[in-house]
Design goal:
seven-stranded mixed sheet; 11 helices; binds zinc ion
C-alpha cells in the first residue's frame, strides 16, 4: 500500500503533479499550482476480504425508463439549456467570470422556480441577506416565496437543508463554502471539492436539486469551477463581455439533455431579459456593408444563430506582426492564415490581423472557417461582401472546403432575417430554401478568386 504523499494541484483545471512548477502544462495558466494533501480515494485496505455482500438485482437494456419529471422555470432560454427544465435530485454547476451576472441570473431563476411551486432556498456565501434582498428589490422579485440565508459553514447549511427539505437549493458560491473536516482554507482545491462532493451527494440522497455557483478565477489560491465539473450532472457557463449587454448561458455538459445548447439574455436595468431571437440582436447594428465584415450562419446547440465576424488587416509597424482574436480560437485563425497564404497565394506576412465576433459572442464551430477566411480577405483587399450574403463552411489544410451539418437550418435562419445569398461548400446534401441563392464552391482558392478576384487564380 503506497503511502499517500503530498501532491500539487492546479487550481484552474485540477491537473495533478508530483512536483511544483510555475506554469500548468495542462491548461497553460501561470502560478495556479499549489501544494495540498491528496483527495481521499476512499477507505484504506488492500482487498474486500472474504465477507459476502448482497446480490445486486440486474436489469436488461430493454427496461423502459420513464423520463425524469422536470420543472420548467417559464424562462425558455434557461429551460432549454437545462435540457427542458430542472430535473429533481440533480446537481448543476453554473460557472462564469466574477461580476458577469451569475447571482442575478440565479436569483431570477430561484424566483421563477419558487413561483412554479418548488420550495426554494438561496444560500449566499458572498453577500449578506440584506444585500441579496436589495438585489431582489431592484429585480422586482420581493413577492416570490424564496427563502434566503447568508452562510458559509457547510455543516450548518446541510443541517438546515435537512430540516427544511427544499426541492431546490442554490449555493452562491462554492468557493466560499467550507467544511470543518478539511483543514485547508476556503477556496482551496480540497475545500471546493469537498464542499461540492458533500452537497451533490446530499442532493442525490435527499432528492434535492442543487445549483452551485462557481467563479472562474485567475489567482492560484482560489480553485475554479473546472475542479468540480466531473462531480455534477450539468455544467453551464455564463459568458459575455463587460460593456456588452448580451449574456450567453452555455451548456458544456448535460446528463439530462444536449450539450452545446445556449440561452441568450440581455442585461437590463431590471435584470436579465431573455432574447428569443438572438440573430436579430447580434446583427442589430449592421449598417452599410463594410470591408472585413462577414455574416456567419452558425448553429449553437439545436438553434441557428447568425453572427458577424469583423476583421481588420493593417501594415505592421513592428517586425513581429500582431494576431489578435476576440470570440474565436487563435490557433484556428493561424491555421486559416496559413492556408490562405500557401494554397491561395494571399500572404499576411508583415500585416497585423485583428479578428472579432460582434456583440461579445463566442463561436467554436469549425463551420465558421469560411466566414473567417472571407472576413480576412475582404479586409485585406478592402472589398466588402454584399450586405445580403451569409457564409459558412469548414476549411481543410489542403484548402478544400468541407460541407457542414444542418445546412437547411442555417439557410432558413438567414432567409428569415432577410438574407438572399449563401456562400457555402460544394458536396453533401444540398437542400434548397426558397428565397436564398446558394453559391457553392469546391475549394478556398476558387472562393477567394471568384468572390474577391484575389489570389493566384486571378493572376493567370
Ligand atoms: Zn491547469
Amino acid at each position: 500500500m503506497a503511502k499517500s504523499k503530498t501532491q500539487f494541484t492546479c487550481s484552474a483545471c485540477a491537473a495533478t503533479y508530483n512536483k511544483w512548477s510555475g506554469r500548468c502544462e495542462a491548461c497553460g495558466e501561470w502560478n495556479t499550482i499549489t501544494e495540498e494533501a491528496p483527495f481521499s480515494a476512499g477507505p484504506a485496505g488492500s482487498s474486500l476480504g472474504t465477507t459476502k455482500g448482497r446480490t445486486i438485482e440486474l436489469s436488461d437494456l430493454s427496461t423502459e425508463e420513464t423520463p425524469p419529471p422536470r420543472t420548467v422555470s417559464g424562462v425558455a432560454e434557461l429551460d432549454r439549456v437545462l435540457g427542458g427544465g430542472l430535473v429533481p435530485a440533480s446537481a448543476v454547476l453554473v460557472g462564469g467570470d466574477p461580476g458577469i451576472g451569475k447571482s442575478t441570473l440565479l436569483l431570477q431563476a430561484a424566483a421563477r422556480f419558487a413561483r412554479m411551486g418548488l420550495k426554494t432556498i438561496y444560500v449566499s456565501g458572498e453577500e449578506a441577506s440584506a444585500q441579496v434582498r436589495m438585489r431582489a428589490q431592484r429585480l422586482g422579485l420581493t413577492e416570490s416565496p424564496v427563502k434566503l440565508a447568508a452562510e458559509t459553514n457547510l455543516r450548518d447549511i446541510m443541517t438546515t437543508l435537512e430540516a427544511e427539505r427544499p426541492q431546490l437549493a442554490i449555493i452562491d458560491s462554492i468557493q466560499t463554502m467550507w467544511s470543518d473536516t478539511v483543514s485547508s482554507a476556503p477556496g482551496s482545491v480540497s475545500q471546493v471539492r469537498a464542499a461540492a462532493h458533500e452537497l451533490t451527494a446530499f442532493a442525490k440522497r435527499k432528492g434535492i436539486a442543487i445549483i452551485l455557483v462557481g467563479h472562474v478565477t485567475k489567482e492560484g489560491q482560489i480553485a475554479g469551477p473546472r475542479v468540480v465539473e466531473h462531480m455534477v450532472d450539468t455544467v453551464l457557463y455564463f459568458e459575455g463581455e463587460r460593456g456588452h449587454q448580451f449574456r450567453v448561458l452555455r451548456a458544456v455538459k448535460n446528463r439530462f439533455g444536449p450539450a452545446d445548447e445556449i440561452g441568450v439574455f440581455e442585461m437590463t436595468g431590471r435584470g436579465l431579459a431573455e432574447v428569443a431571437n438572438p440573430s436579430a440582436l447580434f446583427l442589430s447594428d449592421r449598417g452599410t456593408p463594410s470591408p472585413g465584415s462577414v455574416v456567419f450562419a452558425g448553429i449553437e446547440g439545436t438553434r441557428p444563430v447568425l453572427v458577424e465576424f469583423q476583421a481588420l488587416v493593417a501594415p505592421s509597424p513592428t517586425p513581429q506582426a500582431r494576431r489578435t482574436v476576440v470570440g474565436w480560437d487563435s490557433g484556428r485563425l493561424a491555421m486559416i492564415l496559413a492556408v490562405l497564404e500557401s494554397r491561395c497565394d494571399v500572404p499576411f506576412a508583415g500585416l497585423d490581423v485583428y479578428l472579432n465576433v460582434a456583440g461579445g459572442m463566442k463561436v467554436s464551430e469549425p463551420a465558421a472557417d469560411l466566414a473567417v477566411a472571407a472576413a480576412l480577405v475582404s479586409a485585406r483587399e478592402d472589398s466588402a461582401l454584399p450586405a445580403d450574403t451569409v457564409v459558412f463552411g469548414e476549411i481543410s489544410l489542403s484548402g478544400a472546403l468541407r460541407s457542414v451539418s444542418q445546412t437547411e437550418n442555417r439557410l432558413k435562419e438567414a432567409q428569415k432575417l432577410g438574407f438572399t445569398t449563401a456562400l457555402a461548400p460544394k458536396g453533401g446534401k444540398a437542400p434548397t430554401v426558397d428565397g436564398i441563392t446558394s453559391n457553392r464552391v469546391g475549394d478556398l482558392a476558387s472562393f477567394v478568386s471568384e468572390v474577391f478576384g484575389a489570389g493566384h487564380k486571378a493572376k493567370d
